[in-house]
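---------- Forwarded message ----------

FYI, see the Riboflavin synthase record below. Original note from H. follows.
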Amino acid sequence: MFTGIIEGLGTVAGIQPSGQGMKLTLEADFSLDGTRLGDSIAVNGACLTAVALAGRRFTVDVSPETVARTTFGRISIGQRVNLERALRLSDRLDGHLVSGHIDGMGRMKDRRAESNAIIITFGADRTLTRYMIEKGSVAIDGVSLTINRCDRDSFDVSIIPHTAKLTTVGFKKVGDPVNIETDMIGKYVERFVTGTREETDDRDGRSPLDMAFLAKNGFI
């Protein structure tokens, strides 16, 4: 589990193809003291497991599913990435609950300065934007951000100079792809409300948990 508050940047130092997956070697800009083999590290928002450690360098395996779902299919030597080690239960939760399981990719459509902030518009598929609401949370390349506006195929976020300086979002250009993880709470709520075909009530083919049930029992 992560918070979306980036710990620091890193650089891709090695790429080793492995079938449809790959091994990545990365070098962090900060000390990895306290990190152990098997620990989870979010790389551009994707939760990966450290399988080798040497000073500030670590290696991770990237599965074919992760390659297909993320921007890792386009990654290159020397590329800068956002890094966040897993949350300790004693830590402050400054961002929002981020699982590190990327839902899909989007693309930067526009960026403009507005006072002391940068307003960025990302394009994304409806399968992602359906879980977004204004003032809700989204993780972009692992960075916890607040959604200013959203519609069927795009959404806006605002980043401050501090975030622009310390994460890759600050130097992304229009057209660049990004990893997107939507708010997990919305996905769970949808699952509980709609259920699945196997979970439906056999008597009438409908889930016993629906909007009418929630309204009747005072939940909405």
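H. also flagged this: The first helix runs from residue 64 to 69.
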